[in-house]
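Protein modeling request. Please complete all fields; requests missing the sequence field cannot be processed.
Requester role: graduate student
Desired output: 3D structure, token encoding
Chains: 1
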Amino acid sequence: MELVFEKIHVPDKHSFITRNMILNHHSTKIHSHKNFELNLITCGAGKRLVGSHIAPFEEGDLVLMGPDLPHCWDILYCEEGKTPSCIVVHFYENIISSDFFNIPELHCVEELLKESAKGIFFQGEKVARVRQKMEKLCKLTGLPSYITLLEIFCVLLDIEEKEFLSVTPYSESFKKDLDRINLVYQYVLQNIQSGVKQEEAAALLHMAPGSFCRYFRSKTNITFMEYVKKVRIGLASRMLLESDKRISEICYESGYNNIANFNHHFKTTMGKTPSEFRKTLQELEN
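Delivered output (286 residues):
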């Protein structure tokens, strides 16, 4: 999969742009841009890629990313009758001028923006406050919008529960690794039902299996088999949501050969067995 460069237009006489966005086929393409991005998922769940990081995402997830950091959101499911969506704020570093940064109270904002080069995932109760302010920001213009953005930075700085996502900041040298890893991602997605073999994935990168395992983990922060498991469970979750197939069918169609192993992996990842997960979905519908 090719890395797509996206040019985001911030209108003249504006220092940032806020948008309600529908997550569609474009969001599944790995892309980057010269802007900082604050991204809040307002509906939907699936798989997130930020630099070398891959993990599930869900409604309420809040991520701040620096310029040139490759990312994508691959939607796997959304509540029936709702549209997968997010609120996005794009801005440049000059959102706060260099003279403004010289104000001691704003040094912490400058540090936050530097840290975002790896992508920051914010968690905890205070994320709800950020969501309220981002929803408010969508309706504002002029000075009130800028003040609200500063208030958002203030809350972000107060959040202690945060995770740095990418192992390293993005650089041109990482693009080669990203392209190689994407070959592996595509192989897994295309063969998840028929069978994924580590040796075949390694051969795509012209590596011995042992070297491939070390390489994959160093670039993604998870093992190859952990990634395969995430894809299988994501596929199974989607089938449980969107179909009436028997759980045994879903087990085999998501690449498992053993129902007990499937149940164990599903519960470890999702916190519920497949049958419990489906029952919860049915209760939500009723």
